[in-house]
Design goal:
CATH topology of the largest domain: Rossmann fold
InterPro entries: AAA+_ATPase (IPR003593), ABC_transporter-like_ATP-bd (IPR003439), ABC_transporter-like_CS (IPR017871), ABC_transporter_ATP-binding (IPR050763), P-loop_NTPase (IPR027417)
Shape: globular
GO molecular function: ATP binding; ATP hydrolysis activity
Strand content: 25-35%
Number of domains: 2
Largest sheet: 6 strands, mixed
Organism: Streptomyces pluripotens
Mean pLDDT: 89
Helix content: 25-40%
Radius of gyration: 23 Å
Distance between the termini: 49 Å
Protein name: ABC transporter ATP-binding protein
Membrane topology: Peripheral membrane protein
Low-confidence stretches: 1-9
C-alpha cells in the first residue's frame, strides 16, 4: 500500500487526536558505522486545541520525532499518524505546517515577495493577513538577507500560516527574537489555538514552556520521561528556593542548618535550596539580618535537569 492511497484509521486513534505515535523506533548509523537509537519506543498522543511543549536535552530525539511527524523520515518500527492518515498526506493537504530553526528562505527576495510567492501555492491564502499576524508588515520591502535572525523566524511563521493549518509544529520558534517580539509571537499563537489550532513546540527556553504550554512532554534517550502540566512536573522535585539579602557570616550559618541542601551567592543575594521553606523563613526572620526575603517554587528548568539526570543515572546503574 503506498502513502498516496487511503488507509484505514489505526486502532486507538480517535477524532480528537491530531497526532499519534505508537511504539515508534528510529535508528541511525554514525560515521564509524555504529548503529544508535534516536527514538526508542516512543508513545505520544496530541489532542486537538492543545499547546504542547516538547522538551529534551540535545540528542534526546526531539528533531527526529519532529521529522517523523512531518513525514520527512519514516520510523523503523511503530506507527505515526496525523489526523488518522500518513504524515505526508496531512502535509500535502495543508493540515500541517512547521516553523523550523533555519533554511527555507531565499536571501535575495523581499519579505513580501517571499510570502506572496509561497502563498500562490495555497489557494485562498491571504499574504497580507499572515504578515500582519506575524508582525512583519513593516518589513515588507526588506530583503530576507537584511533581516535579523528573529525577523526571519517571524517570516517563517507567516509562511507557515499561509495554508491555515490545523496543526503547527514549531522548532525553536523564538530563537533570535527579543523579549517584546517573543510576547507578541506567543499572543498570536494563543489566539490561533482559541480558534482550534493545535501547537507543538520544541524549545530550550524553559520559561516559554512554563508560561505558554498547556502540557509539557519531556523526552530523554528517545523515551518519554515526564508528561503533564508544567506545575505537575515542577512538583515532581521537592523543596523550594528561599533567597534574601543577608550578611555573609549569617548566610554561612544558615547554609549549615538542617534542611538546607545548597547555598549560592549572586551578588549580595543568597539563594538557599531547602526542604522546609517555612522553617527556613522563621530562622531568617528571627536569627539573622536577612531582608527582602523571597520564596519561589522549583523552576521547570530545575525539574528538567533533575528528571533527565535521574533517567540517565537509572539507565547507567550503580558504578
Amino acid at each position: 500500500m503506498t502513502e498516496t492511497q487511503p488507509r484505514p484509521t489505526p486502532r486507538g486513534v480517535t477524532p480528537s487526536d491530531v497526532a499519534v505515535l505508537n511504539a515508534v523506533v528510529k535508528r541511525f548509523t554514525n560515521a564509524k558505522g555504529e548503529e544508535f537509537t534516536a527514538v526508542n519506543g516512543l508513545d505520544l498522543r496530541i489532542r486537538r486545541g492543545e499547546v504542547l511543549a516538547f522538551l529534551g536535552p540535545n540528542g534526546a530525539g526531539k528533531t527526529t520525532t519532529i521529522d517523523m511527524l512531518l513525514g520527512l523520515t519514516r520510523p523503523d518500527s511503530g506507527d505515526v499518524t496525523l489526523f488518522g492518515q500518513a504524515p505526508r498526506q496531512a502535509v500535502r493537504a495543508g493540515q500541517v505546517a512547521a516553523v523550523l530553526q533555519s533554511g527555507g528562505l531565499l536571501p535575495d527576495l523581499t519579505v513580501e515577495a517571499t510570502v506572496r510567492m509561497l502563498g500562490s501555492l495555497h489557494p485562498g491564502a491571504d499574504p497580507e493577513t499572515v504578515m500582519g499576524r506575524a508582525g512583519i508588515t513593516r518589513l515588507r520591502d526588506r530583503r530576507v538577507s537584511e533581516c535579523s535572525g528573529g525577523e526571519q523566524q517571524r517570516l517563517r511563521f507567516a509562511v507557515a500560516l499561509l495554508s491555515n493549518p490545523e496543526f503547527l509544529v514549531l522548532d525553536e520558534p523564538t530563537a533570535g527574537m527579543d523579549v517584546a517580539a517573543r510576547r507578541d509571537f506567543w499572543a498570536t499563537v494563543r489566539e490561533d489555538t482559541q480558534h482550534g489550532m493545535t501547537v507543538m513546540f520544541a524549545t530550550h527556553y524553559m520559561e516559554e514552556a512554563d508560561q505558554f504550554a498547556d502540557r509539557v512532554l519531556m523526552i530523554d534517550e528517545g523515551r518519554v520521561v515526564a508528561d503533564g502540566s508544567a506545575s505537575s512536573i515542577r512538583a515532581r522535585i521537592s523543596g523550594r528556593t528561599v533567597s534574601a539579602l543577608i550578611a555573609p557570616q549569617d548566610a554561612t550559618a544558615v547554609a549549615a542548618s538542617p534542611g538546607v541542601r545548597a547555598c549560592v551567592a549572586r551578588g549580595e543575594r543568597y539563594y538557599f535550596d531547602c526542604t522546609d521553606s517555612d522553617a527556613l523563613l522563621r530562622l531568617l526572620v528571627t536569627r539573622t539580618s536577612a531582608t527582602e526575603i523571597e520564596v519561589a517554587p522549583r523552576s521547570l528548568e530545575e525539574a528538567f535537569m533533575a528528571i533527565t539526570n535521574q533517567g540517565r543515572s537509572a539507565q547507567e546503574g550503580p558504578r
